[in-house]
Write a structure and sequence with these properties.
binds carboxymethyl coenzyme *A; three-stranded antiparallel sheet; about 50% helix; single chain; 6 strands; mainly alpha
């Protein structure tokens, strides 16, 4: 088959043939790596049309609202699988057989404890620290505890680090919550499922028995599945960029957590609930819609819009159903939900949102469901980080497994001064 090329005519030069590379699905890409030699870089702030890597983990078609992990549609995984099976799939590229399924569950669920010395690290934080701030610190600190899995050139080390991170993230996350409210840390319970164990570490206290509510356990597991991976988003790209320099996996995941924290990314679920509280009543919605549409007002409707999905967010559809299930089961009647439902209805009918293709995203519903489950707002993004760890570490492993991997080093369009003459401070005119 003849290779397709794109022809680029630069001023004063001969035309350059740029190879077109085809993926298995989605947009083809133009290989522009030769351009540097011709004295040009490409300019694409925010990576609107730039593929930064080759990956076989997650496929998204934003126009059709498709999200697939290793070829499996997200709605099927959310309905029929569990989070740890999805982790196996992301990491290994295929579904486990029964034996692998049991082994993977056993390994992850039996490495949930953390080093006691790491627990002491929490005492160094203020009690009112945001749990995401604690997570940035303690996850990075894992590299000070697991020296035996830091050789990134060793495939076995890479795998152990991946298992450790997936196993220990719920423990670290629940501890960040317990620390903030002054309750004792609850040790993991290996008899429980991944989601059940997390709920117990969050909500149990030593003086009382704790029984995991199966509806909440299933909902928590679904939340984990729906956030497990999302191809080259800001935090995953951050993990890849950090990892491209050869940094250790724990440091790379800590970098991903920092990137996730922002309100335009993983912080949107917390920001969305803050916004619903600020709107307060259905009567106030038109004023907030007006603000969201005003070009001179920085306000945005949190939980609406997505860089990639321009039809609907398939995760939001699953989350919306799960949200209704949980609310019905818990018989929750929350006025904020009326605000959320009405906001969703108005925004979906408003020409501004229709024209700009702004739909409720996964975080619009995840905030509501987490609130109904009794999870405090400050933990929403932490829970996102727990689930996304599987995606981050799968991308990190995939990158290191690829031959010819190079340090990520973007170029720039320089717009500053050049060739100024330096005068010592005393000689400068004020
Ligand atoms: N409310 C009001 N207007 C919006 C919103 C919004 N939530 N999102 C985008 N717009 C407008 C924006 O002002 C712009 O208008 P114009 O064309 O007139 O300049 C247009 O829509 C395109 O917006 P953009 O900022 O160029 O789009 P983007 O792809 O760079 O940003 C986004 C995507 C998700 C950051 C943005 O939609 C947003 O800030 N949403 C709210 C935060 C949010 O919910 N984030 C969670 C995303 S899902 C979880 C995850 O994967 O992290």
């Amino acid at each position: 088959m003849t290779k397709q090329t794109a022809t680029l005519q630069l001023p004063g030069q001969e035309a350059i043939e740029l190879p077109i590379i085809k993926g298995s699905a989605g947009n083809d890409v133009i290989d522009i790596s030769k351009l540097g030699a011709a004295g040009y870089f490409t300019y694409d702030p925010g990576f609107l049309a730039t593929a930064s890597c080759e990956s076989a983990i997650t496929y998204i078609d934003g126009d059709k609202g498709i999200l697939q992990h290793r070829g499996y549609p997200i709605d099927q995984l959310a309905e029929k699988s569990d989070y740890l099976e999805v982790c196996f799939l992301l990491l290994n590229g295929h579904l486990p057989d029964k034996d692998d399924f049991n082994k993977f569950h056993h390994v992850v669920l039996h490495h949930t404890m953390i080093h006691e010395q790491l627990a002491k690290l929490y005492q160094g934080f203020r009690r009112d620290s945001h749990p995401m701030a604690i997570m940035c610190g303690v996850v990075g600190a894992l590299s000070a505890f697991y020296h035996d899995s830091l050789d990134i050139t060793n495939e076995q080390h890479r795998e152990i680090a991946a298992y450790r991170l997936i196993s220990k993230m719920p423990t670290l996350a629940a501890m960040s919550y317990k620390y903030s409210n002054g309750q004792p840390f609850i040790y993991p319970d290996n008899k429980l499922s991944y989601a059940g164990n997390f709920l117990k570490m969050m909500f149990a206290v030593p003086c009382e028995d704790y029984v995991v509510n199966p509806v909440l356990e299933r909902a928590m597991d679904k939340i984990f599945i729906l956030h497990a991976d999302h191809e080259q988003n800001a935090s995953t790209s951050t993990v890849r960029l950090a990892g491209s320099s050869g940094a250790n996996p724990f440091a790379c995941i800590a970098a991903g957590i920092a990137s996730l924290w922002g309100p335009a990314h993983g912080g949107a679920n917390e920001a969305c609930l803050n916004m619903l509280e600020q709107i307060e009543t259905v009567e106030n919605i038109p004023e907030f819609i007006r603000k969201a549409k005003d070009k001179n007002d920085p306000f945005r409707l949190m939980g609406f819009g997505h860089r990639v999905y321009k039809n609907h967010d398939p995760r939001a559809t699953v989350m919306r159903n799960a949200c209704h299930e949980v609310l019905n089961d818990l018989k929750i009647d929350d006025p904020l939900l009326d605000v959320a439902r009405e906001l969703e209805r108005i925004a979906l009918e408003d020409p501004y949102f229709i024209e700009k293709k702004l739909y409720p995203n996964v975080d619009f519903y995840s905030g509501i469901i987490l609130k109904a489950m009794g999870i405090p707002k400050s933990m929403f993004t932490v829970i996102f980080a727990v689930s996304r760890t599987a995606g981050w570490i799968s991308h990190w492993k995939e990158m290191l497994d690829q031959p010819g991997q190079r340090i990520g080093r973007p170029r720039q369009l320089y717009t500053g001064e050049v060739d100024l003459h330096f005068d010592p401070v005393d000689d400068r005119c004020s």
